[in-house]
Each structure stands twice: as structure tokens, then as C-alpha cells.
Amino acid sequence: IWLSALLTLALAASPVQAAGGVSDPERLTSHPALEYAGSPSADGRFLAFVSEQNGNADIWLKSLTAGVSSLPRPLTTHPGKDTAPALNENGSSLLYVSYRSDPRGDIYLLDVPTGKETRLTNERHGDLAPAWGGDKAIYFLREQENSGDRSLVRLSLRTGAIEPIIERVTSYAV
Description:
Elements: E1 2-3, H1 5-10, H2 15-20, E2 26-27, E3 35-40, E4 46-51, E5 58-63, E6 73-74, E7 82-87, E8 93-98, E9 106-111, E10 117-119, E11 126-132, E12 137-143, E13 150-156, E14 162-166
């Protein structure tokens, strides 16, 4: 994974930006395996990404703190495929899609410091592309079982209630 000008611009308020502005791309990982779907924390201190270096798609975490040299570390390490990482503002919580129990995908929440995982969805639908909302909720795409149509839904982290927001969407950004 390369820290490109695009990612640096996305981290405009981060220590990476403040330390030196927009610069040439910088290599963040060095393993020859496929690595993709980078998700920086809003404060710019961490990058979660998908790596297949153990032969399976797992979520890894890399510190981006200036002056700190650290190797990426795996956050998920089971045989099921994990994708679509989304770090919260300070990098302490991670949303992701796991296919370990459901071939269509379920949304999980990982407490990064403790490693505690919580399965947030367990439906007959495919749940994809989780994103943090500013209202103690998360948003994601839910694929309908019979039609394949996708809806944008909101899940309250306080109550666990899921409510549809927009029917028949193809993509979204929060």
C-alpha cells in the first residue's frame, strides 16, 4: 500500500499532513502479497487495510505516527475472508465485513485495543461497505435476498435497531 497524494489530501488534518504537507508517495507496507482497501483513521494515526499475506483476506493495522517505525499487525486471523475495513475517528474501533459465518457477509465491530469482536448483523442478507456515522450509528449496504437490490441502512449502536434509509442504491459515502 502506498500513501499517495490522494490519501495525504484525505488526511488534511492529520499529523502526516501537518508534518510535511503533500509529498511524493511513500510505501507503507512491503509484503509481496495482495494488500488493498486502506482505511485511515480520521486523526491520521492509523491505517487499516486488507492483506492476503497469510493466504486469506484479513484486516491488518499500521501506525502512521511520524517518527514511529512499526510493522503492520493482523487484527483478524481466522479462515474466513474479512474485507471493507472502516476505522473510527481515533482508530480504537473497526467495522468490517466478514464471511466467516455467512457467505453473503456480516458486519462486525472490533475493539482494537482488546481484540474483542462483536457481530452486528446476522441476517439472510448480504451486508456490505460499513461506514461510521456521527450519530452513534453505522451505515452499510444491505443486499436483499431474493432481488439482489441493495438498500442503504442505518444500525443504531445504542439499540441495535436497523432502519432502511434509501432503497435501491449502488454506492454511498458518509
